[in-house]
Amino acid sequence: MAGKHKSTSGPEQGSRVRSRASSPSSFSARAAPTISAPTTPRSGKRKYKLLDLDGTVLNHAGTANDADVAAVRKLSARGIIVTILTGRLYAGTREAAELLGIDGPVGCADGSHIVNVKNDKTLLHHGIRGAAAEHLRASLVKNELATFLFAEEAIVHDERCADFLPYVRTWSTDLRFVPRVTDHALWTSGTGMTATVAIGTEASIGAALAEVQASTADALQISTFPFRNNPLRWGMVARAAGGTKGTALAWMSEHYGIDISETVCVGDWHNDLPMMSCAGRSFAMAQAPSEVKAAATDVLDRTIDAGGAIAEAIQRAFGRS
């Protein structure tokens, strides 16, 4: 078996929120979004490779296969641009980017935050702010939900969230305690929050979802999910509208001056569907759900547990080095 590289901030893989790539292993998914995708690969020379992290590059233990790491680095040496589009926050992404030799922009929080690894500079941020933030906060307080605030890199929490800290470490290991989350300055900041995660009962999460949807119209994108190991606990993830892996892919293409038809992506989960729908060629991991496999132009033979799937995708899309 090939050796493995360890990413210390990597999460365990498991059932995940369908709008995100790296949700905790104790969550199970809800209905997947319906997104059309090309049924055959488009023509043209491929110049750009985009990788999901969890379940694609990193396995259950947060490690990357040696063959995959070597293949990515060799591809970069050939002049092909490689980057990451992940559900993680930047603090949970940077180490993997360095491991793969990526020093340009990476897309985090499912396209809500794009950061240049070379200088840690934010290039794009879709934040929850203004009236949408106020309506969201009011509903979370009313329904007494334990709430995490996701800043660009850090996760802010209070004492009510203590029991759930192991779950959110999958997004970032930069955890910051405050006396009361709903009083934090991020709620009224101009930058806004990258995301919020709220935890409660199915009834309280359902009530909050209905209230927020009624008051914020299309300003937020929200998903809800049950805890896999505790069906009495439910979660709700809210992000600002306008940021997906698809929009991040479009931004990256424009940034590098590459036609979007010249891009190749690899993913394993429902939050990868937006990038699969617009990439020139898309690969689904062998363990991906059927909806993801159906959306991709190609399905890989190798799983994340077997390792070598990224090397396989590179060989099929770009040929041997």
Summed up:
The protein has 321 residues and is an alpha/beta fold.
Poorly predicted sequence stretches spanning 5 or more consecutive residues: 1-44
Q: SSE order, as H and E?
A: EEEHEHEEEHEEHEEHEEHEHEHEH
First-to-last CA distance = 22 Å
| Strand content range | 15-25%
Instruction: Give the overall form.
Output: globular
The CATH architecture of the largest domain can be named as 3-Layer(aba) Sandwich
CATH superfamily of the largest domain, called what? HAD superfamily/HAD-like
Q: Quick one: biggest sheet?
A: 6 strands, mixed
CATH class of the largest domain: Alpha Beta
Which structural class do you get from the secondary structure elements? alpha/beta
Give the radius of gyration.
19 Å
Helix content: 25-40%
CATH topology of the largest domain, what is it called?
Rossmann fold
Number of helices: 9
**On the 0-100 scale, what is the average pLDDT?**
86
Q: Going across the biggest sheet, name each strand in turn.
A: 10-9-8-11-13-12
Tally of distinct domains = 2
How do the strands and helices of this protein lay out in sequence?
Blueprint lengths: L3 E3 L41 E4 L11 E3 H12 L3 E4 L9 H7 L4 E4 L4 E4 L4 E5 L4 H13 L3 E5 L4 E3 L7 H4 L6 E3 L17 E6 L1 H15 L3 E8 L2 E11 L4 H12 L6 E5 L5 H4 L4 E4 L5 H6 L2 E2 L9 H10 L3
Parallel strand pairs: 2-4, 2-14, 9-10, 14-15, 15-16
Antiparallel strand pairs: 1-3, 5-6, 6-7, 8-9, 8-11, 11-13, 12-13
Helix pairs in contact: 1-9, 3-5
